[in-house]
Task: structure prediction
Amino acid sequence: MGDIEGLNLASGNNFQLIFPDMPGQETTNELFSLNIYETIIPEVSFAENITNWQGWDFKFVTSNMDFATWSFNFDINEKFENWKKIFKWMLVINNNKDKAGASLDEYAIDSSLYITDNYNNTILNLKMINTIPLSLGSVTISHRDGENYLSSVCTLSYSYFDLVL
Result:
C-alpha cells in the first residue's frame, strides 16, 4: 500500500481580512483587521469562443479575466468601530450631501485575505488590488435568546487579486 497524501485537509475556519489605513480616515499606520466569519473566494472566469475551420473546432479565450465582486460576513465589535470604518470609507467616496462621487481610483486600497492552516501558518494570501466597498449590509438588533452577536455583510469591488506565496 502506497503513501496517502493530502490527509491534512484545508480548514474553512482559519482566515483573516486585513486592510491598511482607509481613505478619509485618521492615519494610524496600523493594519485594520476585520473579523469575518464567512466568505467565498470570488469566482474568476473568462469567455471562450469556438471557431470551426476546415472541420476542426478551435477554442480561443476572447476576453480579459473577470473577477466577481467579493462579499463577506463579519462580526461587529462592541463599539461598532469596524462597521463605522467601512461606512466612513463609503461616505468619503459619496456622501449624498455635498459630494456626489469621484474617481474610485482615489479611494481604492489593497486588502489581503490570509488563510492559515491549523497551526496558524499562512497557506494562502489573496491580495485584492484596488478594493472599493460597494455595499454595507443592514444590522439586525434583537434581544431574543441565542442572538448575542451583531453582524453585517460587506460587498467589495476590486480590479483583480494576486496569489502571494
About this structure: The chain has one domain: 17-164. The first helix runs from residue 81 to 93. The mean pLDDT is 83.
